[in-house]
Amino acid sequence: VVAICSSYIFADTNAVTTWGDFLPEEMSPHVNPNPRNVVSNVASLAWGAPVEGFQLSASLDKSSFFPTEPVLITMTIRNISAEDLFWMESTPTADFHLCVTDENGAFVPHTRYGERLARNRGTTFKRMLVTVPPGKAYQYVLQVDRLYDLTLAGGYSVSVQTKVRKLKAAASTELTSNEVSFRIEDIVPNL
After folding, report:
1. pLDDT tops 50 at residue 123
2. Interior CA angle at 27 toward 142 and 25, to 5°?
């Protein structure tokens, strides 16, 4: 069962947000400035239910993290229909909403940075209509611990939601990923 979270994260219009803003500073130079990566090998991913020809996957590189380690989630959206679909793209924080819960099922609060983005919801600075050909998949990455408070050790779950255009109407609907679980350890590694 996927919990529906009440607030979307949208981009902050007070600053020009770049791809590097969502990753640790030391990783930023190694990241493609275009947040959309085309991928072809998606057979091994777990997926949410299909909606309007799209499917959404959430994945983590591993299931356990140290307290100071970045928790990077990869969102993959793919076209499983036989025709071109259209995806309204802005920034990963504007396009995807993370629903993060702790091991007791309680919603995890935003960090100060995440709260600032949430307060500015609905204000975006770019929107692009992207064609997603049949069988194509695009990946995006967000740093979960930058948006949500993961300072306490324990188990967490995250799912991702986004809006997709309805095929037969001028409206949008919700697309939800699979749920992934991970753990924040209560020890810091010896360096």
Report:
1. yes
2. 85
> What pLDDT shows up at residue 125?
66
Taking residues 157-169, what's their average pLDDT? 92
Q: Are 54 and 84 in contact (CB under 8 A)?
A: no
Q: Look up residue 150 and give its two tokens.
A: 């993961």
Whether pTM > 0.90 for this model: the answer is no
Q: What is the pLDDT of residue 185?
A: 95
DSSP, residue by residue, the chain: -PPPPS------TTS---GGGGS-TTTGGGS-SSS-EEE---TTS-----BTTEEEEEEES-SEE-TTS--EEEEEEEE-SSS-EEEEE--HHHH-EEEEEETTSPBPPB-HHHHHHHHTTT--S--EEEEE-TT-EEEEEEEHHHHB---S-EEEEEEEEEEEE-SSSS-EEEEE---EEEEE-SSPPP-
With contact defined as beta carbons under 8 Å apart, do 71 and 144 qualify?
yes
Neighbours of 168 (CB within 10 A): 6
167, 177 Cβ separation under 8 angstroms: no
CB contact set of 52 (below 8 Å; sequence gap of 6+): 85, 164, 165, 166, 167, 173, 175
